[in-house]
Write a structure and sequence with these properties.
Blueprint (H helix, E strand, L loop, with lengths): L5 E3 L2 E6 L4 E5 L10 H7 L4 E5 L13 H15 L4 E6 L1 H12 L4 E7 L19 H9 L10 H11 L2 H16 L13 E6 L7 H10 L3 E6 L6 H4 L1 H14 L9
Parallel strand pairs: 3-4, 3-5, 5-6, 6-7, 7-8
Antiparallel strand pairs: 1-2, 2-4
Helix pairs in contact: 1-9, 2-3, 4-5
């Protein structure tokens, strides 16, 4: 997947296709490549946008879920996107939730997959000594039902991050912020149609988390995918895309009727 990384002011992002905006928010160890199959599928019917979240660029005080939600707000404002279909995976789902609670007027639908916000079991309470790639490989494999999905490329990306002291400090800050920022008492305020797409074998945000989101968000539906872990859009993209397409199609702008 080779897409042009566009830049406007301090915002870096991918934008491909035409139509209603579909904005994708990646997780803590996420990258643009996480969404490659989703982008390829939906770019023919939506304007697909993937902002690069500044996980390591914010000052430590703003390296929080709320700080990232403010960044998303500034990005959507700068680009003038409205009637947005907002999708978030893992930490990106948590950011989407915080954003929609503060700025519901811009969002048309919400999709969460493996989202934090209620409960999550992350990389653990401590990080290994820098340089322990096998530890990183094993932790990365836990993201998936099939450990083969933790490719050398993905492990190397995570290893590079965890081998940088400043980045590790910011990852820990974000992980702690996610744990502190429990949204259970606020989710009933979300009125937009919400789709929950979950791996039945997710060990980081287990299936009971999806059921609780479904119970707490009034206008929500939940879909479980077998033999699938924490990142369904990567591990079972075809099944994920079918569920998402059906959900989005129900909530698209009706075509104009010509007289």
């Amino acid at each position: 997947m080779k897409y042009e990384i566009k830049q406007q002011d301090k915002f870096k992002f991918i934008e491909v296709g035409e139509g209603e905006p579909l904005v994708l928010l990646h997780g803590l160890f996420g990258a643009l490549s996480n969404f490659k199959d989703l982008i390829e599928h939906f770019k023919n019917s939506y304007k697909v946008i993937v902002p690069m979240l500044p996980l390591f660029e914010l000052d430590i005080f703003h390296t929080t879920v709320g700080g990232l939600a403010k960044f998303v707000h500034r990005f959507l404002e700068a680009r003038g996107y409205t009637n947005v279909h907002l999708l978030g995976n893992s930490l990106g789902g948590h950011v989407a939730l915080v954003y929609i609670l503060k700025h519901p007027e811009r969002i048309k639908t919400l999709t969460l997959t493996g989202s934090s916000g209620l409960f999550e079991s992350g990389m653990g309470d401590s990080y290994p000594k820098r340089g322990d790639k096998e530890y990183i490989r094993k932790k990365s494999q836990l993201t998936f039902y099939d450990p083969a999905n933790a490719t050398d490329e993905l492990v190397n990306e995570v290893f590079e991050i965890t081998n940088n002291r400043i980045k590790v400090i910011k990852i820990i800050a974000l992980a702690k912020s996610a744990i502190r920022n429990n949204l259970g008492e606020e989710l009933n305020r979300i009125k937009q149609p919400t789709c929950l797409i979950w791996g039945n074998n997710d060990t980081i945000t287990p299936p009971f988390v999806a059921k609780e989101f479904n119970r707490l968000i009034p206008n929500s539906e939940v879909h479980f995918i077998d033999k699938c872990g924490h990142a369904p859009m990567m591990e079972v993209p075809s099944e994920f895309n079918v569920i998402l397409e059906q959900f989005l199609s129900k909530n698209r702008q009706p075509a104009a009727i010509l007289a």
